[in-house]
Specification:
By secondary structure, the chain is mainly alpha-helical. It contains six helices and twelve strands. The protein is rod-shaped, with a radius of gyration of 48 Å. The two termini are about 25 Å apart.
Length: about 400
């Protein structure tokens, strides 16, 4: 080998090549220690480099989706919190309606109609005596308080209990006073109503007649209590609407008609669509009441309780659906986190260096380099000695 007119011996050339090789290996090892990677570019290992890059890219895409999934969890939790509050408000409204049922009737006197008289032989066991009330007589009373109109055809014998059974569907009850007069009165459920038109006999020849129907007489103190309950009820109904409107997160409200779409993978093929509902008062089938019209009697309170019961059922159904969707989203959230870890670990296995191994290699190469330098010096010294002898 000839370099710039200098002739090197074989041993010197061999030591120089060994020293260069060791220097290259040491540089590579130090680069791995500095970067922590054994594959830093496609030149190091193209297969591992591009495979690891693909894994990291997918992990990055799924990581970006985690923010959206996390927001979706919060949207569902906000809706679930809203439903819990709505259920409590509905229960409060039920309590108010039940207070109406427990309050005084609201009327000091209910609507009544009284017969002129019954025969002295008439009694609760048998109203038919063949004179006043005969076989085939028909008693008709128009609908009272939203009840079913009554048409009763008396048989050979008719007891007071049988009459009451027939009158119950029309919110009426019958009794005999001390003079054996037949008294028909509205029930508590229809205390605010006036008895419908009474016709007797419809087809028979009995001599029983009825006086004028007396209208109910309101009790001022009781009606004041009921009016206050109406005001409290309406306040609860208003809070139902505002609570539903406030159950949003990041501009999405599943209780106010919004929908939620979540994407779980980087291709956009794995999604979950959650349909929102409108759970304001109207959406739950509830309306405000009118003082002086509603809660006047038990029928009005029972109507409100029926609507509130239906609203409770609706809320429970939606709560179950939200709970199911929340569980799905949380499971997918955990899955995505674990998958990201798997992808990143796989990428690391392809590119990361073993620092313990590389540190040992660095130490060995440094020692090898020192030996090579010493060997080169000895070779040069030997060559110089030979030249000295030739002089």
């Amino acid at each position: 080998m000839k370099m710039s007119g200098i002739v090197l011996s074989a041993s010197v050339r061999q030591n120089l090549l060994s020293l260069q090789s060791t220097a290259d290996l040491l540089a590579t090892t130090q680069n791995r220690l500095a970067t922590g990677n054994k594959v830093n570019s496609a030149l190091d290992n193209p297969t591992n480099f591009f495979t690891a890059q693909g894994l990291n890219n997918r992990a990055s895409d799924i990581t970006n989706l985690l923010d959206s999934i996390g927001n979706g969890v919060q949207v569902l939790q906000a809706a679930n919190t809203g439903i819990t509050s709505l259920q409590k408000l509905v229960d409060t409204a039920k309590s108010l309606a039940n207070q109406v049922l427990q309050a005084p009737t609201g009327y000091s006197t209910k609507s009544t109609v009284t017969s002129t008289a019954l025969a002295a032989t008439a009694n609760a066991a048998n109203l038919v005596d063949g004179t006043v009330i005969k076989s085939g007589d028909v008693l008709t009373i128009a609908s009272t308080g939203g009840g079913t109109a009554t048409t009763i055809t008396f048989g050979a014998s008719e007891s007071l209990d049988q009459l009451n059974t027939a009158l119950a569907a029309n919110n009426l009850t019958a009794s005999l006073d001390s003079a054996n007069k037949l008294v028909i009165t509205t029930t508590n459920d229809a205390a605010s109503s006036t008895i419908g038109a009474v016709t007797y006999p419809g087809a028979g020849t009995g001599t029983l007649t009825f006086g004028a129907v007396a209208a109910p007489v309101a009790d001022a103190a009781s009606q004041t209590i009921r009016a206050n309950l109406v005001a409290q009820y309406n306040n609860v109904i208003q809070q139902i609407t505002t609570t539903a409107q406030d159950s949003s997160f990041n501009g999405i409200n599943l209780l106010n008609g919004d929908n939620l779409k979540l994407t779980f993978n980087e291709t956009g093929k794995s999604t979950l669509n959650i349909q929102g509902v409108t759970f304001n008062a109207a959406g739950l089938g509830l309306t405000s009441l009118v003082s002086g019209t509603d809660f006047l009697d038990n029928a009005s309170a029972n109507k409100a309780l029926t609507l509130l019961g239906a609203a409770s059922t609706t809320l429970r159904t939606e709560a179950s659906a939200l709970g199911s969707n929340l569980s799905i989203v949380q499971i997918r959230q955990d899955f995505s986190k674990n998958l990201i870890n798997v992808l990143q670990t796989g990428s690391s296995n392809l590119t990361l260096a073993d620092t313990n191994e590389e540190a040992a290699n660095s130490q060995a190469l440094s020692t090898r380099q020192s030996i090579a330098v010493s060997a080169l010096a000895l070779a040069n010294q030997s060559q110089a000695s030979v030249l000295q002898l030739l002089r």
